[in-house]
Amino acid sequence: MEADWALFVEILVQRPVKRSTLFLPSILSQEDLEHMQRMAQSHFDHIMAVLREMPRSMLLVIRNLNTIRAIIKDHGNTVDRYGIMARSAIRGAHQDDPAVRGVHGVLKAWWTRCHYDYCVWREKVTHSLRIMVAIATLRVMQLLGKAPSMEEIKAFAAAEEKRLDRV
């Protein structure tokens, strides 16, 4: 049964969800793209069965998500839609359970959201520190003549970004 929900989530977000971090990148890496193609090929019949069993209103939600995804891409991926969905899921998980209504439920939902926000913040700080260390290391290597110039690196990064956009 675990494979069913994992497959559904990957269909919904159109990204591999088993990751070492909370971050879901907006651009698929080549490895992620190959994973999604393998999953689609090997589970095609199961995916179609799940989609046929799904209520029509859910299919409409998925189509709307695809539309929103395309609009956001056209505007430069400025919205953290996964973060918004996670916060909404946290809020919804604690709203409908009669056992946790009232002050206890509000506090539990607040604590869960605080924990989620802290994990995201910690991951962003860790990522920023790694980037700063990498840039500092690169500059030292450039001073020693062991690395290409920043202009060459930026040109390479821009070319790779264009290549990934075509995929």
**What's the helical proportion of residues?**
over 70%
The count of strands amounts to: 0
- The portion of residues forming beta strands comes to under 5%
Shape: extended
- SSE string, helices as H and strands as E: HHHHHHH
Q: Low-confidence stretches at least 5 residues in length (pLDDT < 50)? A: none
Enumerate how many helices there are, as a single number.
Answer: 7
The profile of the biggest β sheet is: none
User: How many structural domains are formed by the residues?
Assistant: 2
Round the mean pLDDT to the nearest integer and report it.
78
Beginning-to-end CA distance, first to last residue: 32 Å
Q: What structural category do the secondary elements indicate?
A: mainly alpha
Supply Rg. 21 Å
Protein name: AARF domain containing protein kinase
GO molecular function, one term: kinase activity
Keywords: Kinase, Transferase
Explain what this protein looks like in three dimensions.
There is one protein chain. With 167 residues, the protein is an all-alpha fold. The chain folds into two domains: 1-79, no CATH class; 81-167. The protein contains seven helices and no strands. The chain has helices at 2-13, 30-42, 44-53, 56-74, 81-95, 103-143, 150-166. The longest helix has 41 residues, at 103-143. It is extended and about 65 Å long. The mean pLDDT is 78.
Summarize the structure.
The protein is 76% helix and 0% strand. The chain is mainly α and 167 residues long. One of its GO terms (molecular function) is kinase activity.
